Protein 1
Amino acid sequence: MRILKPEDFESKDTPRLARALLGKFLVREFRGKKRRFMITETEAYDGPFDRANHAHKGKTSRTGVMFGPSGRWYVYLVYGMHEMLNLVTGPEGYPAAILIRGVKEVSGPGRLTRVLRITRALNAKVFTKENGLYIVDIGAPVLSSKIVATPRIGVSYAGPFWSNKPYRFFIAGL
DNA sequence: TAAGTGATCTCT
DNA sequence: GAGATCACTTAA
């Protein structure tokens, strides 16, 4: 078992990283309790040209964290009530992130953050054990035949080219 | 199918 | 400052 490091997400191949995150475990240490959840669904938001990516219009106070180095959390509020958990990827200056949409037994990005008690307090925090939210690899890769890729959810505003890209990944049959 | 909810961004 | 929009969930 290995705790992943910020440098493990420096690649610009965001879809590949998103796919590789499946089967890893999200570990939440909160108020003295530690819980592990297997990541089962992710989405890639890949760089400045991806029109579905919040950062495609440039750096703002919200999206600035995506332009920084990999391995930070990007947490934002959507629809007035749901916090979304993303892991920033790519080298400094390349805005990209992976939305963690689901873990085993918890489907949906809004429910995930509610169950794990994740809020914007974690936004821009480095992904470490000290911050109470990190990822471990238990060394059990997911069979590629079990991984399904589809278009991302809720991004029709990005136009057909970007909204149809198969940047959503999940483990079939859970 | 649509309401709920508030931060963010794009105009004035 | 106002108005539209939004990487969702739940109840009907």
Protein 2
Amino acid sequence: MDNSLPPYLERLNDRQREAVLAINGPVSVLAGAGSGKTAVLTTRTYHLIRKGIPAEKILAVTFTNKAAREMRERIARMLDVHEGRDRRPGAYGLPFIATFHGLGRELLETYGSIMGIPRHFCVYDRDDSKSAIRKALKELEVDPKEISPAAILARISKAKSEGMTLPEFREKFGRESFRTRIVAEAWTKYEETLKKEKALDFDDLIMLPVRLLERHEDVRELVQKRFTYLHIDEYQDTSVLQGRLVQLMAGEKQNLFVVADVDQAIYTWRNATIENLLSFSETYPGTKTIILEHNYRSTKTIVEAANQIIQINQNRNKDKRSVTNNPDGERITIHAAGNAEEEASWVAREVSRSSFPLEEVAILYRTNAQSRALEEAFLHAQIPYRLLGTRFFDRKEVKDVLAWARLVLEPDREADRIRAVQSPSRGIGKVTLGKITAGRIEELRPSDRAKVESFEKVVRELGDAAETLPPSAFLKLVIEKSGMETALLKEGEEGQDRLENIKELGALASRHDETPGRDGISAFLADSALASDQDEMDRPLEAKKKGVTLMTVHAAKGLEFDMVFVTGLEEGLFPHENMAEEERDEEEERRLFYVAVTRAKKRLVLTLARIRRVYGTDFFSEPSQFLRDIDPSLVSFLEADEYEDVIQI
DNA sequence: GCCGCGTCCGTTTTT
DNA sequence: CGGACGCGGC
């Protein structure tokens, strides 16, 4: 008998190998930062296939689209499968690799008809949901100033992601207070809008599949048979409902493999709960737990600093501590700048002085607002950069095109009609539109009627074209026929940029060109709703850019760079001072700092500004308490006298 | 119906 | 400070 290991297993350490080889039954892997958990997930998937498990029986759920795509590419390479343009998660006989939302979408598209879910639904993003709520408030004659649409949406979203239905919410909170009554009323209207527009929101993409599997045993069995091996990444950041979905899918076999790090739980504000992880072995008796604490990523200095930071948290597994065989490396640099602009230009200067390739440098910050000063500094220093998180899909012109496309597929979508009719503006406004929706078409002036008819004609023509055209050609036609192209060309330089953005959208759509007609277009639309602005691969132009990466700490999760700058280390900013007392969570902020620090492989630089501008006014800021958590022996200051000043012993 | 101007508000973090 | 929204004049 041949006892030698295949090369892909030899590369792993004992614990990692144990994780890969634990094929049946529930397994939880508690992995520290930089411990090679991605390698474990990928290798395990590959190993299962080598063992004869059909690839399409394996489901892997990742946290981001980017992680999904990378894993899919890696496995395709290992299996020597050449992926074509088909972007569906399970294409080419590969495992089904997607985010929870991508999985939910697949389940609803495939099995949702039994619950009356339309075949072509569109997905509402946060802004869509917000305007739907705003509309609901208007109908209810509630002043949005009294209760903000955002707050209502947050409450609805929380209820939904806990698995609570609208009637249950009414029952429980309907009489509690004025506030909750408004929430219940707005929720009712909101659901009506969703239904009318054949739309689902992000929470629906999880909630409805759960309901589907709970209520329909036949579907549950079908799904359990379809996926016999389940891999879940970042399990500490799953919600109650996502946990339940996993459980429903795992079924009796429970060939369930989850990877998690409690110290990197940074999404509780998005209704993630570490309860799923803490109760894992109770939910799944016979769980095998494997701890990966060896860090392959960072220098000893960085690993040691990370340990010092995270061990201050009370709410964690105190035995878990990262170790590394890597060299000590350089000390951590702390720099205090005068204000945000000086901080930014100092960072830019340090980047150009360093010898790391620009692709190996990341600039991290707590809030998106901080990116502006940094962007300007990099522009000024002529250092190429990529800015993640500029909400591409939030841009007006992009939303306009998507609205047009959605309207063409589903002429009942009121919100999209209002948007489309105004882009470009064609002399039809709210009043005219209101008359149409109310069915009072005869009241229209002849000139208005002509305008409306020509608009509707364009929509119809595009509708016909949508039946056969590949998505990218369809989009091109939309841009032309809607009149957007002509209008933008008239606008000069800014219009050119906008046209560029729209064309980028066309490039995205071409990924679905192998599925022409409504199916492909609708898949593209769902893609863009689920696409993340944090993922440069979702944007062809952004992906081509090379350079330093600017992003929030949240967006940096899972990534690694030779040199990492963590900026804005000031009290109130990082840790962030929350408005709502009850939401303040110092330990989560510290975990976030831990995530930031552990992104660095070789050099870590922490910066702050003594004066920070908030809403246009300057404030003095105190250095972040987090800076004091790192032992001085690991730190070097550029100016010696800065030390006591910043650390404030 | 459109556009310009004034006011008000916000900022965590995002699939 | 800057984006979103509303009001009022054209």
Protein 3
Amino acid sequence: MKYRRVPDETIRRLPVYLRGAIYFSRQGMKSVSSEKLAGLVGVNSWQIRKDFSYFGEFGTPGVGYDIGTLIKHIQRILRLNVVHKAALVGAGNLGSALLAYPGFRMYGFEIAAAFDMDKRKVGKKRAGVVIEDMAKLRTLKARYIRLGIIAVPEEAAQDVADQLVLAGVKGILNFSPRYVSVPSKVKIITIDIAMDLACLPYYTPAG
Amino acid sequence: MKYRRVPDETIRRLPVYLRGAIYFSRQGMKSVSSEKLAGLVGVNSWQIRKDFSYFGEFGTPGVGYDIGTLIKHIQRILRLNVVHKAALVGAGNLGSALLAYPGFRMYGFEIAAAFDMDKRKVGKKRAGVVIEDMAKLRTLKARYIRLGIIAVPEEAAQDVADQLVLAGVKGILNFSPRYVSVPSKVKIITIDIAMDLACLPYYTPAG
DNA sequence: GTTTGTGAATAGTTTCACAGCA
DNA sequence: TGCTGTGAAACTATTCACAAAC
């Protein structure tokens, strides 16, 4: 296929395919068709084939995709083939849930450090990770931690983001319900878990 | 403006605008321009004006949008002007975090019930909500609870979704990292908090 | 027979530029 | 002057249909 810019939407779907491929792999399957994968992850089969086609041909007509190859391929495209260390800021309810969440490992992430403003929490452990003082954020660079996760109350979000940027992180996952501004060299993704729910009533007329 | 189907993307942005409007309202402001709102929420001003234009004219040229009117308008469009009761299934780490999350109230949601498979948790309280036995799910309809939130391990997600559908919910917010299938009359939104993070390394080359 | 890969057609979304109103 | 509302243009993404590969 002649070169075309990869759509952002395609990138957004790759983790879904990766999860599906890992699932089939654990079931002991060796290869899978776009139709089968489509059934599992809830995306059309032609959409899946189109998405994969942006990265060259790696399926076998009449057979499907080799699951091992597929996993490696997607991991390399998304740069998930190396372990990415992340720092969590905020060890409250949400932060603790994130520390215990098994989903990060699946994509090669490791929450390697946790921080909290509350001095009483400092030194305690959550899911095997020792909570550190906010002042220690400056050590991130030396510890090769390049991602930050914000799980603090919204008033503190911008301040924490500034500190993370200062500490040299390259990407931030923001769980606080507030838009946060960062220099353009830093990529930020904001997830407001209530916002997705806010769209639901619109789509459920007889609610 | 002549009628045109409202883009899904516009609907997805409305909660963002709503949050911004509520923020300005709390600051004591009476009206706001699309430019000001744009600065807060990180969307272009013309995008905001376009989005609003799908629902008729409610701004004043030379002045901006009346904040009170804006809030009421968006709430009505999204059907957030009545309280929506939701049932949480799964009172583990994530479930507890959701129960304590203040963001739901902002959009008019109330987690009115919580359920867990673990009999030892049944009867205990989390953030003021008593955890009930899974068997009580069948009482949702009588209690006017039409939304379900799934916060259980992925193996149990499909089963819980089936039970929620049986209990008559109209919409489901799924936090388990697995695609779940439901009848087409039920709207489901799946959030995998790790999946968003999985896209980050792709956008941060020097990671 | 089955399943991939992809150009072309269709659909959806964003951006622009500016007329018109307060 | 300042800001909204919107048609038209540009851009992006999805869907289709089918030739080619196994």
